Amino acid sequence: MTETPAPPAGTTALPLVFDEPRGRRKPPSHLADLDSAGRKALLEANGLPGFRAKQLSTHYFGRLVDDPAEMTDLPAAQRDELVATLLPRLMTPLRTSEADKGTTRKTLWRLFDGALVESVLMRYPDRATICVSSQAGCGMACPFCATGQGGLQRNMSTAEIVEQVVAGARSLARGEVPGGPTRISNVVFMGMGEPLANYKAVIGAVRRMVDPSPDGLGMSARGITVSTVGLVPRMRQLADEGIPVTLALSLHAPDDELRNDLVPINTRFSVAETVDAAFHYAETTKRRVSIEYAMMRDINDQAWRADLLADVLMRGDWGWVHVNLIPLNEVPGSRFTRSRDEDMTEFVRRLEAKGIPTTIRDTRGSEIDAACGQLAAAE
User: Which residues does the annotation say bind S-adenosyl-L-methionine (predicted)?
Assistant: First the structure.
């Protein structure tokens, strides 16, 4: 259970949900939820030969097979039962939208209980990145975010998270994305949900991604980014996991007064506490932290806030941080709108003048509602 300390004196308790609503059915167990010993044990508990677990893992992680008929090394008489036990269907694609000449693909998934989540596959000339969801909905209640408006439905399982990556890997391997067959090089936990509020499943998914085949996808941890709005105890816990993923902190404001409104968890963990935890992560892992900052017109994009942000990030004597400015992907009907280009340019200039490396994110897929939660909300 995620720590939920009381809010500071003088503040109101927030309707933030750290744990999923009780009483929901759990997704079926899947080999991606388990290590190799657990997979073998699950088969044996169902009266099936445990050694078949390695073959099933090879098909799923190594060959990216989703058709049991292609698993010809499994005995025909047991194949369906083996697949049903370790590879149950977890999610069904409802709709896939494309942009950028087919190199950006957003998929809306229906989970086994009807919950809706989204993932986005983006192919660039030098890499292929998939953005995955970790929760159905989100309990962080950030007012500018489409996902945050619907609240939290439930946490996703480790396997449901991994399945988004495997599905994207299949699309790339089969040449369904322009540019020819390739592999996923980067995974970002920036889809629906707050990853560190579903800590156990997210860490399990990361381990499946970095485990060598056939136990996992064999990815580099350095190609995986885990984002958070600032769950400080979990940020510090992540630093001690021994998995050198990139941490992305969604800061969005350098001062407590504004951040309390934009990111309500800030009333529990202040800007100073949150940036301290991010710096601790960088110091512990020697991995540079990314500061995510959604640029909102006349709200958080003033030049003086760029100066303040630079001051807040001045810690240590090495380049521990990089600021990633994100032109807001607007949600229909929201009062929050995208910053003017000239204001973003000045924001970059101010930060770089104080020695803070800064870039403006190359946004993709705005014409297909690529902001987290927009497809699910429309459905």
Answer: 193-194, 227, 250-252, 329
Same domain, 76 and 99: no
**Is residue 18 assigned to a domain?**
no
Query: How confident is the model over 82-127, as pLDDT tens digits?
Result: 999 999 999 999 999 999 999 999 999 999 999 999 999 999 999 9
Q: CA 40, CA 49: separation in Å to the nearest integer?
A: 8
3-state secondary structure of 205: helix
Which residue ranges are tagged as binding site? 138, 142, 145, 193-194, 227, 250-252, 329
Q: Quick one: 66 and 130 in the same domain?
A: no
Write out the binding residues for [4Fe-4S] cluster: 138, 142, 145
Claim to verify: residue 348 and residue 269 sit in the same structural domain: yes
Task: Say what the pTM is.
Answer: 0.91
Q: Indicate the Cα dihedral angle 297, 342, 356, 194, nearest 10°.
A: 30
Question: What's the pLDDT tens digit per position in 119-176?
Answer: 999 999 999 999 999 999 999 999 999 888 889 999 999 999 999 999 999 999 999 9
Q: Which residue ranges are tagged as binding site for S-adenosyl-L-methionine?
A: 193-194, 227, 250-252, 329
Q: Is the peptide bond before 28 cis (omega within 30 degrees of 0)?
A: no
Q: Which run of H or E residues covers position 154?
A: strand 152-155
Beta pairing, strands 116-123 & 104-111 = antiparallel
User: Are residue 62 and residue 142 in the same domain, yes or no?
Assistant: no
Domain residues for the domain of 60 are 31-86
Helix (H) or strand (E) holding 311: helix 303-312
Catalytic residue among 118, 160, 163, 292: 118
What CATH number corresponds to the domain at position 43? Answer: 1.10.150.530
Catalytic position from the list 131, 160, 292, 372? 372
Q: How many domains does the chain have?
A: 2
CA 129 from chain centre, in angstroms, equals: 11
Active site residue 131: no
* Same domain, yes or no: 197 and 331: yes
Cα–Cα distance for residue pair 307/346, rounded to 1 Å: 11
